[in-house]
Amino acid sequence: LPVQSAITHPRPGTAVPAGELTVKGYAWSGGGREVVRVDVSLDGGRSWQVARLAGKRPVPGRAWAWVLWELRVPAP
């Protein structure tokens, strides 16, 4: 399967204060393959930023669960 991902924070429609914002989510793949990278677009796909993967890295070939990710971005 291609990597699937979801944003969990902030929730859709949430007003965020100006400053720095942490966008969080999770990603998963199939067939025991490890998620090695999550790219996030905050402008409808015009540009992309690489999120930081959180937590311990799985043993290669045994990545049967999701991985958490986060990205700190400026919020105008």
TrEMBL record:
Gene3D superfamilies: 2.60.40.650. InterPro entries: Ig_E-set, MoCF_OxRdtse_dimer, Mopterin_OxRdtase_euk. GO terms for cellular component: mitochondrion. GO terms for biological process: sulfur compound metabolic process. It comes from the Eukaryota. It holds the Pfam family Mo-co_dimer. One of its GO terms (molecular function) is molybdopterin cofactor binding. Keywords: Metal-binding, Molybdenum, Oxidoreductase. Residues 1-74 form the Moybdenum cofactor oxidoreductase dimerisation domain. Its cofactor is Mo-molybdopterin. The keyword Cell division does not apply. PANTHER family: SULFITE OXIDASE, MITOCHONDRIAL, SULFITE REDUCTASE. This is SUOX oxidase. The lineage of its organism: Eukaryota, Metazoa, Chordata, Craniata, Vertebrata.
